């Protein structure tokens, strides 16, 4: 029974006041009866409960901080600026593949004798691929990390974009561009990664500035097309458009993995190294203590978007995104048809008989003016 009381005292690790009471009961006037020894244990347990269950342990005195607290402590500096440029290069490389549709569609219509709905479907299949792959890339990013997913997305876009160069027919173009669209659905991973390392004060501003590389990429694409299509042809334009994706594979190794993902995956050491590097670059310091995972909040489900609390916001955001995408891609992707009708009248097929290189340079100036507005 002596060992029983000793074990109880050791397990609870009471402050000296509680231990003195235990000692008094254990060594006082009692003759070592079982009842009094059990009474001592009961007294210790009751005092622990009445004091709110406070435990005087070494673990309770340790300081902790989360990734979000570390990001706020590191602040905004050269680490975030460098991250912005790397993610911006990725965004610009994606915009090349998207804007490619606007410049090669008229060429394919002439070369393969396509009808207007055939040309329109080349664009449609890209967005079909995006709709299919968007939730899949999101799940992959949550499971394997942002950096790993960006490697997969970048290779996917470059590989199938390059394969499009060798398309022998219209239906091969449709199939391969649909796959490219599936890769483009994963491009928001770069925005998500950048947002995780931005302090709350700068997050909205920097994410809006994330559209600048997209505009630069579209201008670059049309510039290359203006000189490539009249001389080398549309297949070489596909090669030049896919090349930046393979270059990005080399740059992505310098992109940090999501610290939040690493902590959730149990790789706290790697997360600490990334945050320490960010603090060093920004000439700041991390909070004291150990890095811990943020409090896990219950994840919602798709049906929650239509609950009474969120249905209004859900519908409003969907309408806004539909209107924005419809207007933007409608004006950009239809610009070639508009310019051709301006030069040849309603019969755009005249360009197939007497191709005019100035169409591409007019298109270039149109894209430049349109994307300058984006800045």
Please describe what this structure looks like.
The chain is mostly helical and 375 residues long. The protein has two domains: 2-61, no CATH class; 67-294 and 336-374, Growth Hormone, Chain: A, CATH 1.20.1250.20. 73% of the residues lie in helices and 1% in strands. A two-stranded parallel ribbon has the order 1-2. Helix 11 (211-228) runs antiparallel to helix 18. The longest helix is centred in the first third of the chain and has 35 residues, at 78-112. The radius of gyration is 31 Å and the shape is elongated.
In short:
Keywords: Membrane, Transmembrane, Transmembrane helix, Transport. It is found in: Membrane. The chain is built from 18 helices and two strands.
Low-confidence spans: 1-34, 40-45, 47-60
**How many distinct folded domains?**
2
Percentage beta strand = under 5%
The CATH architecture of the largest domain: Up-down Bundle
Q: What is the CATH domain class of the largest domain?
A: Mainly Alpha
Overall geometry comes to: elongated
Tell me the total number of β-strands: 2
Q: What's the helical proportion of residues?
A: over 70%
Structural class: mainly alpha
CATH topology of the largest domain: Growth Hormone, Chain: A
Number of helical runs? 18
- What Rg is obtained from the alpha carbons, in whole angstroms? 31 Å
Distance between the termini: 80 Å
Q: What sequence of helices (H) and strands (E) makes up the elements?
A: HHHEHHHHHHHHHHHEHHHH
């Amino acid at each position: 029974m002596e060992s029983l009381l000793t074990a109880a005292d050791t397990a609870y690790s009471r402050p000296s006041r509680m231990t003195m009471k235990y000692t008094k009961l254990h060594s006082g006037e009692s003759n070592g009866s079982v009842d009094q020894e059990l009474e001592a244990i009961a007294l210790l347990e009751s005092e622990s409960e009445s004091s709110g269950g406070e435990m005087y342990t070494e673990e309770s005195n340790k300081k902790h901080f989360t990734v979000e607290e570390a990001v706020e402590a590191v602040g905004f500096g050269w680490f975030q600026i460098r991250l912005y440029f790397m993610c911006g290069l990725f965004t610009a490389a994606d915009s090349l593949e998207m804007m490619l549709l606007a410049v090669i569609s008229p060429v394919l219509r002439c070369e393969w004798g396509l009808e207007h709905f055939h040309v329109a479907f080349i664009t449609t299949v890209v967005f079909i691929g995006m709709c299919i792959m968007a939730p899949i890339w999101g799940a992959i990013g949550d499971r394997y990390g942002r950096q790993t997913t960006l490697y997969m997305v970048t290779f996917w876009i470059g590989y199938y974009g390059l394969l499009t160069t060798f398309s022998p027919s219209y239906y091969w173009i449709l199939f391969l561009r649909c796959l490219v669209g599936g890769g483009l659905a994963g491009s928001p991973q770069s925005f998500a990664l950048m947002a995780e390392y931005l302090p709350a004060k700068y997050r909205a501003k920097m994410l809006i500035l994330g559209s600048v590389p997209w505009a630069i990429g579209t201008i670059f694409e049309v510039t290359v097309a203006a000189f490539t299509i009249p001389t080398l042809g549309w297949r070489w334009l596909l090669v030049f458009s896919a090349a930046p994706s393979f270059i990005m594979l080399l740059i992505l190794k310098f992109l940090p993995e999501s610290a939040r993902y690493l902590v959730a995956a149990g790789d706290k050491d790697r997360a600490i190294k990334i945050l320490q590097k960010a603090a060093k670059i920004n000439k700041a310091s991390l909070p004291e203590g150990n890095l811990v995972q943020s409090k896990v909040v219950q994840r919602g489900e798709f049906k929650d978007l239509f609950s009474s609390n969120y249905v209004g916001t859900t519908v409003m955001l969907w309408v806004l995104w539909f209107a924005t995408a419809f207007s933007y891609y409608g004006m950009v992707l239809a610009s070639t048809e508009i310019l051709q009708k301006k030069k040849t009248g309603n019969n755009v097929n005249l360009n197939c008989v007497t191709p005019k290189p100035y169409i591409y340079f007019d298109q270039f100036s149109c894209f430049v003016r349109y994307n300058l507005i984006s800045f």
